[in-house]
Amino acid sequence: MDTTLSPEEKAISERIVELKAKLGDELLILGHHYQRDSIVMHADFLGDSFMLSQKAAQSSAKYIVFCGVHFMAESADILTADTQSVVLPNLRAGCSMADMATLEEVEEAWVDILHQTGLNDPILRTSPDEPCSESEAYLVPVTYMNSSAALKDFVGRHGGIVCTSSNAEGVLQWAFERAGQNGAVLFFPDQHLGRNTGANMGISTDLMPTWTPKIGPSSSLQGARIILWHGFCSVHKRFTVSQIEQFRVRYPDGVVVVHPECPIETVHAADAYGSTNFIRDYVNSMPSGSQIGVGTEINMVARLAAEHPDKHIECLDAEICPCSTMYMIHPAYLMDVLERLCEGEVPNQITVPPSIQQGALLALQRMLSIPK
Ligand code: SF4
Fold first, then answer.
1. How far apart are CA 150 and CA 74, in angstroms?
2. Which residues pair with 231 in a beta bridge?
3. What spatial distance separates the first Cα and last Cα of the chain, rounded to whole Å?
4. Helix-strand-coil percent breakdown of the chain, rounded to 5?
5. CA distance linking residue 158 with residue 139, whole number of Å
6. Could you give the angle at the alpha carbon of 44 between the alpha carbons of 39 and 45, nearest 5°?
7. Residue 3 neighbours by CB distance under 10 Å
C-alpha cells in the first residue's frame, strides 16, 4: 500500500481493498491512465479508452466500475451484456471535448455538408460495411471515442465508425475506402486528432477545413477529404511549440513525446506522438538517463516519472494541469459505490437507452474489428 497516503486516505484505501475482496469475481474495476494514483492502485486494468473498452467487452463480471469519464462508461455499457451493470463512481465526471458536439449540432451540420458538397449519405447503401466502388462518393462520419452514445448511434446508422487515438489512422483508412476517391469524412469532435492523423496520412491541411456549428466551414468544402469538427481537449491544447523549444534549451539531448490531441504545430515540433499507451511504450523504450518531455495529462506524466527513477521525465506544461473531470473520481466515491454494491444496490449505473444501443454498438464493433 502507498505510504504517501494521509491517514484518512489510507483508511479509505484499506476499505476499498476489503470491499473488492467481498465482491470477488463479480467486480471489475477499470482505470484510465489519467486517474490519480489512489484510484489506479485499485484498478484491475489500467489503460486508454481503447484498451478499457476491449476489457469491458471481454469481461463477464456482474459489476464494472469505470474509473474514467461518462462517455467511457457509456461505451462499456453498450459493449457488455444486459445482465452486467456499469457504474461511474461520480456521475459529474464528463468530458468537455465530448460536450462540444451535440447530436442536434451534428445532425444540422450533416444536412448542410451533404447539401454543400453534393456527397451521398451512406445510410442509402445496402452494404455500408463494404468498400464502395470508384464512381461513388459518400460522406462517412467518424467519431472519436470521446463522444456521447447518441453520436455513436448517429455514426453507426450512417455507415460510420468510432476511433480512438490508438487506431485513428486505421479507422480513417476504413472510412476512406467507404467514402470513395471523391468522397469525404466528417470527423468529430476533436479537430486536432483528425488533423494530425490526416496529415500523417499525407493529406494537405488545405483539404481539411474546420466546421463550426452556426458558422460553417473555415474554407470551401469542395474537394475536402476530412471535415473537422471544431472541438478540442482543454488539457492537450495547452501544449505549445514554445514549451518544446524551452525544454530543448534545458535538455539539448532530450526527446519530446506528445498526444495527438495537441495542435499540429506542437505535434510536428515533437520527436514522437501517439496515444497514452504509445507514450507509455515510448518512455519504457528510452534508455536509462534519458531526458523526456511529455505532453499529456499530469497524473500520467507523474506516474511515468515515478516508474522510471533512472530517467528525467517532466510535463511540458509548467502550469501543471490535470483533467478536471477525470479528477472528479475521488477514492471516497469509489469506496461509496463499492459499499452500496455490497449492500445489493447498484448506484450511479450508466444505462444507454435501447433506442440508441444498436447503432452505437455497430459503430463500436466496426472499430474493434480494425487492427491498431
Ligand atoms: S483529457 Fe481532455 S479529452 Fe480526455 S477526458 Fe479530459 S477533457 Fe476529455
1. 10
2. 190
3. 35
4. 45, 15, 40
5. 9
6. 90
7. 5
- Ligand 1 centre to CA of 21 (Å) is 31
pLDDT tens for each residue of 15-67: 999 999 999 999 999 999 999 999 999 999 999 888 898 899 999 999 999 99
Q: What is the mean pLDDT of residues 114-136?
A: 95
Please give the Cα distance from 195 to 237 (Å, whole number): 13
Query: Confidence class of residue 85 from pLDDT cuts 50, 70 and 90?
Result: very high
The pLDDT value given to residue 372: 64
- Residue 1: is its pLDDT beyond 50? no
In terms of Cα–Cα distance, which of 59, 22, 6 is closest to 330? 6
Which atom of ligand 1 has the smallest separation from the CA of 323? 6
Q: How far is the CA of 181 from the centre of ligand 1 (A)?
A: 33
> How far is the C-alpha of 317 from the C-alpha of 284, rounded, in Å?
21
Atom of ligand 1 nearest to the CA of 98: 8
Do 144 and 261 form a contact (C-beta atoms < 8 A)?
A: no
Q: CA-to-CA distance for 104 and 285, rounded, in angstroms?
A: 44
CB 88 within 8 A of CB 348: yes
Contact between 329 and 41 (Cβ < 8 Å): no
Q: Give 96 Cα–ligand 1 centroid separation in angstroms.
A: 7
What is the C-alpha to C-alpha distance for residues 30 and 39, in angstroms, rounded to an integer? 10
Average pLDDT over residues 214-239: 96
User: What span, in angstroms and rounded, lies between the C-alpha atoms of 33 and 13?
Assistant: 19
pLDDT of residue 370: 85
Mean pLDDT calculated for residue range 94-119: 97
- Per the structure block, which three cell numbers stand in for 351? 444505462
Residues with CB under 6 A from ligand 1: 34, 69, 95-97, 146, 233-235, 297, 323, 325-326
Task: Report CA dihedral (121, 126, 127, 131) to the nearest 10 degrees.
Answer: -50
Q: What is the pLDDT of residue 236?
A: 96
| Inter-residue contact 166 to 48 (CB < 8 Å) | yes
Residue with the three cell numbers 468510432: 162
